[in-house]
């Protein structure tokens, strides 16, 4: 792995935060892990851990093995906390409205929120997949702030015109769009829909 950022590999960072819809983040991670020449960094917040296990029935440790490098959200001593460490794209999937609020307010008191702040200040691609329903005016204002600051705000809302037949189909549609928004090939996730 090229931790100095001097190689040709692209580097991406995926954050899984403590919102429902953990399956979306896991699917994005699986899709990133299957891509060639992609160095995948992962941060799982402490709130996300139990939600991932409850909603997917999978151990976080097993899921984390898909990443090239896993970082502790509570430990700031990581190159991801610095703008001098090149990262091509970051996504937070799912993103709780608490994490949305922190990023919008410029609070970087965890590695995930700091890395998101770095993405914004370095004008890098940041995709935030918010998951809450309904959204308060505060949430909407925070999402607007993120969008104005350059983030791509997505919602975990699969389309139905494609005729999804299973929950997995619906998850793949959202995960595939996330990959596209990260500037990556969605591969088989959207193969049925993207020529
Ligand atoms: C079972 C469960 C489901 C939750 N679902 C959501 C959700 O869908 N969206 C959300 O914004 N917060 C949700 N929360 C609340 C967040 O987990 C909580 O605000 C947490 O502090 C977020 O921390 P994090 O963003 O650092 O992971 C949920 C909490 C639990 C226990």
Q: What Rg, in angstroms, do the CA atoms define? A: 16 Å
- Average residue pLDDT: 94
CATH architectural arrangement = 3-Layer(aba) Sandwich
Proportion of β residues?
15-25%
Q: Within the largest sheet, what's the order of strands?
A: 3-2-1-4-5-6
- Domains counted in the coordinates: how many? 1
End-to-end C-alpha gap: 32 Å
Question: How many distinct helices?
Answer: 7
Task: List ligands, each type once.
Answer: flavin mononucleotide
Q: What letter string, H or E per element, gives the SSE order? A: EHEHHEEHHEHEH
Judging from the principal axes of the Cα atoms, what is the shape? globular
- CATH C-level name: Alpha Beta
Secondary structural class: alpha/beta
**Which spans have pLDDT < 50 for at least 5 consecutive residues?**
1-6
Fraction of residues in helices? 25-40%
Number of strands: 6
Largest sheet: 6 strands, parallel
């Amino acid at each position: 792995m090229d931790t100095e950022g001097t190689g040709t590999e692209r580097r991406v960072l995926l954050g899984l935060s403590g919102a429902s819809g953990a399956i979306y983040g896991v699917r994005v991670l699986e899709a990133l892990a299957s891509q060639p020449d992609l160095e995948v960094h992962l941060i799982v917040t402490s709130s996300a851990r139990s939600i991932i296990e409850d909603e997917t029935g999978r151990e976080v440790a097993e899921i984390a093995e898909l990443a090239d490098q896993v970082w502790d959200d509570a430990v700031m001593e990581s190159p991801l906390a610095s703008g001098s460490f090149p990262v091509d794209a970051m996504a937070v999937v799912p993103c709780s409205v608490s994490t949305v609020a922190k990023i919008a307010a410029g609070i970087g008191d965890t590695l995930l929120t700091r890395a998101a702040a770095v993405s914004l200040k370095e004008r890098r691609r940041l995709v935030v997949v918010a998951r809450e329903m309904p959204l308060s005016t505060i949430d909407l204002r925070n999402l607007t702030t993120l969008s104005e600051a350059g983030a791509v705000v997505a919602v975990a809302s699969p389309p139905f015109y494609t005729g999804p037949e299973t929950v997995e189909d619906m998850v793949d549609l959202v995960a595939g769009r996330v990959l596209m928004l990260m500037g990556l090939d969605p591969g088989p996730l959207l193969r049925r829909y993207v020529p």
